[in-house]
What does this fold into?
Amino acid sequence: GAGVSQTPSNKVTEKGKYVELRCDPISGHTALYWYRQSLGQGPEFLIYFQGTGAADDSGLPNDRFFAVRPEGSVSTLKIQRTERGDSAVYLCASSPGPSYNEQFFGPGTRLTVL
Amino acid sequence: AQSVTQLGSHVSVSEGALVLLRCNYSSSVPPYLFWYVQYPNQGLQLLLKYTSAATLVKGINGFEAEFKKSETSFHLTKPSAHMSDAAEYFCAVRPASSASKIIFGSGTRLSIRP
It folds into this structure.
């Protein structure tokens, strides 16, 4: 079956611009996670959705970052006033439910802020 | 709180030699433990996971890991390295009791010498 998909695969933007990154989880998965992977580092947690609500947003670095999941399926990560330090690969993962022990990762969106 | 330490940011072995990638974890509650592999410009792929069943876990591509509670370790091994094993490997932890984020180590880059 289809895995987690993320669009775009690559995004280049200028400092100060607004960007949206999209994640389509595996069908039927109620839990959705966003991570950020900077060059040479492991992924770092950003936010976790259970259904439509953000159950844990403790990893969002500041108020320029926001994510939504209005219908409990597709999620969008939004970054305002981008900075060069936001350049990273943004990973999305989903799982069938909150008690499931594994998360399934998408291929990521590589964001480059010039 | 949970944390992961991967000893050695870069490991190089000869083709056919033993692969040993070290991982130590810290967790105040029973953990789930994971090893992920990331090939260049690709997403994260689950190699294996420990979820409180057998302490010796076998994964894909001939890899295995042993959960040692007394040593708080979850080292990854493969008896005989293949050129195709060259990749970045991430150890990760999350609490078994909740649907929380995965905490990743900083990764170990595995190189295989012909």
Q: What stands out?
A: The two ends of chain A are 37 Å apart (CA to CA). DSSP finds no helices and eleven strands in chain A. The CA atoms of residues 48 and 70 of chain A lie 14 Å apart. The mean pLDDT of chain A is 94.
